Amino acid sequence: MGTPFHVELLTPERTLYSGDAGQVSLRTTEGEITFLARHEDYVGVVDVTVVRIGSADGDGTAGAPAELRAAVHGGFVHVDRRGVVIMAPAAELGPEIDVGRARAALAAAEERINAAPSPTEVATAPGHPVPGAVPGPRADDPAQVAARRARVRLEAAGATARS
């Protein structure tokens, strides 16, 4: 792995990670990004994503896992010469995630999504602002957001959606 650099993953409640890393990967609202040592200054909005913090030694042989995963539910990332700081309103380290609870949350969210009227039913309903126009899925739909968060939690825990 490359030159180690300092990384912090913070929530209002606690510091989830503070230490050296060889790389950090995550998704911002602009897309996927990976930070290495001496990355140019950067500030971005973090999406609901799995943050991957690669160990400084590259393979975990120094006692740490090769990669630490965390489910992060939004926030900001700041990169400068001192390192990478991720500030999130809510986040969980992969090993701390209750997989059963995450699977139950995903199932409940998918049930709400499947119970919702189809876009075609909405478009043909009386009073629809543009008759016949079929809307796409809404990214801010609470059931869609809950499903995304549950999937991210499962991915961070290294689990699949189904048992």
Describe the structure.
It is a single chain. The chain is α+β, with helices and mostly antiparallel strands and 163 residues long. It has two domains: 5-94, F0F1 ATP synthase delta/epsilon subunit, N-terminal (ATP Synthase, domain 1, Sandwich), CATH 2.60.15; 97-157, no CATH class. 23% of the residues lie in helices and 36% in strands. The protein is built from three helices and eight strands. It has helices at 99-115, 119-123, 142-157; strands at 5-10, 15-21, 23-28, 31-35, 42-54, 67-80, 83-87, 91-93. Strands 1, 2, 3, 4, 5, 6, 7 and 8 form an eight-stranded mixed β-sheet that branches. Strand 1 (5-10) and strand 2 (15-21) form a beta hairpin. Helix 1 (99-115) packs antiparallel against helix 3 (142-157). The longest helix is centred in the middle third of the chain and has 17 residues, at 99-115. The chain is globular, with a radius of gyration of 19 Å. The chain starts with a strand and ends in a 6-residue tail after the last helix. The mean pLDDT is 87.
Question: How are the SSEs ordered, and which strands pair?
Answer:
Elements: E1 5-10, E2 15-21, E3 23-28, E4 31-35, E5 42-54, E6 67-80, E7 83-87, E8 91-93, H1 99-115, H2 119-123, H3 142-157
Parallel strand pairs: 1-7
Antiparallel strand pairs: 1-2, 3-4, 3-5, 5-6, 6-7, 6-8
Helix pairs in contact: 1-3
